[in-house]
Amino acid sequence: MRQFLGFLLPAAGLTLDEGCLEVLKEVWHPRIVHTQPAWLTNDSLPCWYSKVDLSLITDCFPARRYFHGAVALDGKVYCCPWDSNVFIVYDPSGGTLTAHDIAQVTPSRYARFSRMCALDGKLYAAPCVSDVMLIFDPASDSLSGVDIASFSCKGGDKFSGVCGLDGKVYMTPGHGDYLLVYDTQLGTVSGVDVTSVAQGSDKFSGACVCHGKIYGSPCNSDKLLVYDPASGSMSGIDVTGIVIGPSKFFDALSFAGKVYFGPCSADALVIYDPELGELRSMSIKHFCTGSGKFSGICALGGKIYLTPCNAHVVLVYTPEWETFVSIDLSSLFVASVEHLFGACALDGCLYVAGRFESYMLVLGGFDPWERVSKLEAEEATREAQLEARMKCKAASLGLGVSLQHLLKNFVPEALELCPIPCPSFVELVSHYAMGSTGKGKGNICPRDWRPDCSVVDALSRTHSGQATHFLSWCWGYKVHDFHATLQLWSEDHAELKLDGTFIWVCFFCNNQYRILEEQTQTGSDALEETFKTRLLTIGRVLIMLDSALEPYYIKRVWCVYETFMAVSCNVPTEALLPPLGRTQLHEAVRDGMQQVKCAFDAIDVEKAEASHKEDEDHVKHLIKQTSGGFPLVNEKVREHLARLVKQEIGKFLGAG
């Protein structure tokens, strides 16, 4: 029988020598109160549980937050304090519990430490509130501390993740701006600025080492942190194509050459493969929803275990099968609050630290895996994966680029990537929207879950959102003219919020890797249904003309068709002109309107062209099928564009 299956009953409490604050310890010897493990009785994965009672060995705030992390080392389990005044060591083999008072090490009695790591036989705890990193040496059974105030920040959530590599301890920042580096040999503390990757509060949570690099799991950050100690380089990998919002992940785990991020508010276990540069997700919505789902992640027996914070299940992920099964713990909990925080694996068991609960939970007996076949596990996972992927695809297809990004960031980014001084979009696409320098290169596309995504999916969520306007335009336009036209339009509409206006532009919103590079489709597939649905969903169309006198726009079959569809669907439209085009129109008004009239009389969709002959033929085929064919389309588009130009003239005359 395993001695750690019972509850622990304390002997004498902690005492302090009179007039001093030394680091003290007391040892509790447990009395076994049941001789057989208690099996969870539900239909989930079978296992037994036990609880190690911690309630009477620690003095806590009324909030009853006890411990915040667990690490296994040399056959023992270690827990760092969270509103507790002791650091504890649990020895399962002897059933003993040792408590070390932290008062002498840190000036704050309730210092709060986020997580721990083991390195070269010692334990290192990252401070949340304290300015001291906690160090425990099992060999001497002693605590010590290192002042890290130089690279800390005011208030709480100073550091949230910790890992060790090559004699150095790395701590990822919460509110702070530095990745802290502690050299265990030299005893020195240094910092690496992370603001190029993330800014603001609660940047990162957990940390781990994989292939010689440090990875920080994003909390509020939109990027996961990657630091290479060998080169000193700091970088970030955008995760917004998979998960958005605050409190994304709690912790990180390196396992079998990949990095796993345990979900907090995220609805998926996210996996990063450094060798392939591939980021992917496995949905968990079938098993639990809400915020604060899981706080611990560890590996045991070739499987990944997600241990709960607010969730009432343990999720078991099998990388070989790419499937989940669950262990229902709801019978153990009495309230819907966060209960546990942090976990580790030792000798075939899971040890889960108690944050709100006054015990450490022990789970074991995971051997009867034959009761859960691969097919059963796949069936439970497949439904959740399909639902999540469909939602991600729908959300991605509805995104537009923020007007703020188009006006503030786009042109500098485009000119930096493209060697042509004043490129058109035709010239820019291979540098900006596809190819090795494309904005979406290497990012997982949320529409088909393959590498390389659209520009809009690669943007942070501050620069993309549900589309509010659809832009009808030509790829032959110059980047500067495109920018100037939108700038003039935004000035005309002072009521528009730059960060609240999102424009669907095919260049940015279609995945050019699929359409142009792989040529899996020309863009005309399911054209009528796609356009009609998109136009009706977005509800407003911007028609960008390069000129009102000799518009290139009317020579492009796509553009004519888009205007025709907008008119046919009664979708509100507005004409946009660049500054030069507006000036030319105003001069034409002064000199007479004959030139403008002749320009629109020249519309002949039968002679209009497209970049791809397949597109041109397909669009013209659709037009032929409409009642009235080419003549009707010419007439409707001519009348509509003329009406829009008259509105522009009205603005000019009204201003005069």
Automatic annotation (TrEMBL):
InterPro entries the UniProt entry points to: Gal_Oxase/kelch_b-propeller, Kelch-typ_b-propeller
UniProt superkingdom: Eukaryota
UniProt keyword annotations, A-Z: Kelch repeat, Repeat, Signal
Annotated signal sequence range: 1-19
Database matches in Gene3D superfamilies: Kelch-type beta propeller
Protein name in UniProt: Uncharacterized protein
Source species of the chain: Polarella glacialis
